[in-house]
Amino acid sequence: MLEASFNQLVNEIRSQLQPDEQFTLTLNCEQSQFIRFNHAKVRQTGTVNDGSLQLVLMHNHRSSYREFPFTGNLECDHQTAQAAIALLREEVPQLPENPYLVLPSGNHISRESHAGKLIAADQVVSTLLPMVSDLDFTGIYAAGSVIRAYADSVGQQHWFDTDSYSLDYSLFTADGQAVKGTLAGSTWDEAAYQSRIEESRAQLSLMSNAPKPIQRGQYRTYLAPAAIAELMTMLSWGGISESSHQQGGSCFSAMRRGEKKLSPKFTLKENFTSGLVPRFNELGEIAPLELALIESGELVNMLTSSATAKEYGLEANGATQGEELRSPEILPGDLDHDAILKTLDTGLYLSNLHYLNWSDRPTGRITGMTRYACFWVEKGEIIAPIENLRFDDSLYQFWGDNLVALTNFQEFIPDIGTYEHRNLGGVLAPGMIVEDFTYTL
Predict the structure, then answer these.
(1) What region holds the Metalloprotease TldD/E C-terminal domain (predicted)?
(2) Using 50, 70 and 90 to split pLDDT, how confident is the model at 29?
(3) Nearest to residue 370, comparing CAs of 357, 382, 352, 349?
(4) Which of 38, 152, 272, 351 is deepest in the core (most CB within 10 A)?
């Protein structure tokens, strides 16, 4: 059993510590099934059983780390860990002191296990493909168990495992236009899958029309939850970070100084109640189940790591070292799904965005491109798809004075990254209508 093997390895490492040495040990592990589809056919399939450990050794205000595989075989893992400790003991004394090094402290112990109801591995193809057999359906299905664990020299220990799946797909027209969709969770929902495919089919039929050229300027715009999720990723790039604020780079510093506010319709929080991501960070600290960040347009908290708190004399709130969002939620509004086009009236309907970047982070200005199934709407009716546009606008506008309405429903947009390991979590967001969204190309 992997948990027992991890716990035994932790005890072995603790027993080898020398006076004044401290350590942290983190585990990323997964047992995943991957299937890649193209033209509604299976092009690649396989399973991954993988685990990796990161061991950080701290001594005399210095630290360094080693990463090595986790096999679950105690003898093998113990030998690898011993070799890593020996190398770290040679390396750490040669490094400069870190005045803001945070040592593990506290007595937190936790265990979370979230069993899901996934499609049986041998039934994935027969479940997914019948509904899309007549379409150019391309995408990746990933599912299985993901484990995150932590232990340290002061006795803190955490275990988190969850069953989850994600389906990231695109439907293509004959001339290469595409509609994108995602579906994710811990329990497979056949009805939700059928509904999502039918919605994508409807958008795909509209994509066959000739695209309407759009001149640069400002347009009333609806941004679907997937587009909102892309905007939210920018807040983890020095946006909601306390360290970024202290160094003069945060987009929310103007709010912190009391110079600006967002719309009272806008509320953002970290919400771990879904159990999709672990609450512990790389120091074993536990984040609150819910942490308000922006409440009714007012900034109430920024993500503050222990290192930032130590450097600037503040109080940490369980944030990771990178002070990025882990389980963000934007609260919904009161706009019904069936009223979106009518309320939009005339303007642009954006299903997705990509290639986002800060064009001026201190003023909250973000640039990016429209992507997949974006349309021109007139008098509440979709008229034609649009060619790709570049936008450049400030969050103080689209989440501020220009925010017209948020939908009364939310969608979970998963983090589908698989670089090194399958990522957890995502963004829970509504759609929104904004006035005068700015397009530059």
Answers:
(1) 217-439
(2) very high
(3) 352
(4) 152
The closest alpha carbon to 7, from 63, 60, 70, belongs to: 70
Give me the amino acid identity at 136. D
What band does 327 get if pLDDT is binned at 50, 70 and 90?
A: very high
**CATH among 3.30.2290.10, 3.50.30.10, 3.40.50.720, 3.40.640.10 for 2-207:** 3.30.2290.10
Q: How far from 5 is each of 88, 162, 380, CA to CA, in Å?
A: 23, 18, 59
> pLDDT tens digit string along 396-408?
999 999 999 999 9
Decide: residue 382, CB within 10 A, 0-12 exposed, 13-18 middle, 19+ buried: middle
Q: So what's the pLDDT on residue 243?
A: 97
Confidence of residue 162 (pLDDT cuts 50, 70, 90): very high
User: Are residues 288 and 318 in contact, defined by beta-carbon separation less than 8 angstroms?
Assistant: yes
CA distance 423 to 388: 29
Among 299, 330, 300, residue whose Cα is nearest residue 396: 299
Question: Per-domain residue ranges for the chain?
Answer: 2-207, 217-439
If one counts every other C-beta atom within 10 angstroms of the C-beta of residue 185, the result is 20
Would the pTM of this model clear 0.90, i.e. be above it? yes
Q: How far apart are CA 55 and CA 67, in angstroms?
A: 6
CA distance 381 to 224: 16
Q: Are strands 432-439 and 403-406 parallel, antiparallel or unpaired?
A: antiparallel
Q: How far is it, in rounded angstroms, from Cα 62 to Cα 56?
A: 10
d(CA 91, CA 289): 38
CB 390 within 8 A of CB 369: yes
CA atoms within 13 A on the CB side of 118: 23
Token pair in block for residue 227: 């587009």
The residue-averaged pLDDT of 331-339 equals: 97
pLDDT tens per residue across span 182-229: 999 999 999 999 999 999 999 999 988 889 999 999 999 999 999 999
**What's the CA gap between 149 and 3, in Å, rounded?**
9
